[in-house]
Structure formats: C-alpha cells, structure tokens
Design goal:
The protein contains no helices and 7 strands. By secondary structure, the protein is mostly beta strands. It is elongated and about 45 Å long.
Length: 104
C-alpha cells in the first residue's frame, strides 16, 4: 500500500535553505505477527519557500514513537486510516544501491 509521510515544515534544509514542505514516499504492509505496519521509504519530494520543487531517491524504513520498527495499527483495516496520527516517527535511511540526486 503506498504511503506519504508529511514532514514538519522546515525540518530539512538544503545548502542552509529551509524546505517549506516535504513528503516522504514509501510503501507499507501489515505484519500480523507484530500487529504493526512495516513501512519502507523510497523517496522524498520537497518544495522550498520560493515554490521550487525537487525530488530525491531514498532507501530506509520507519520507526514508531515507541522506538520499534513499524507503526502501531488496528489490524489491516487500520491501514486505510491514519496510523498513529500526529505521532513522531523516525525515518532510518540506509544507503541506496544507486541514488540519483535531483536537488537544486
């Protein structure tokens, strides 16, 4: 299932310029054993304060507010709604095989 994770405004910078709006792109799959949504990230899309947009590939996974891999859900049905709404998450970036940078 595709996912979008909206980052807090100005949480990323490029060359000292804050990025006004960023979303991390990825996919999720419900894990019935852990009852969590395992989320893998594949890219990031950002816009700076002047409205200039850029994308970059990314490889990694999401860690929930409790420090465990994946996000707490209410079963597969919970995947269609917000998962841990407004909870802080960490995105662990792993080195991608071939990253194509498209920044400014």
């Amino acid at each position: 299932m595709p996912v979008l994770i909206r980052l807090a405004p100005k949480s990323l910078t490029v060359s000292g310029r804050p990025l006004a709006d960023c979303v991390v792109l990825g996919r999720a799959q419900y894990n019935p054993i852990t009852q969590r949504a395992d989320v893998w990230v594949s890219g990031v899309r950002c816009t700076d304060e002047d409205g200039v947009s850029a994308e970059n590939t990314l490889s990694g996974y999401v860690v929930g507010a409790d420090g465990r891999v994946g996000l707490i859900t209410q079963g597969w049905a919970g995947m269609t709604a917000n998962v841990e709404p407004r909870s802080p998450v960490s995105i662990v970036v792993t080195p991608p095989a071939k990253a194509k940078t498209v920044w400014w």
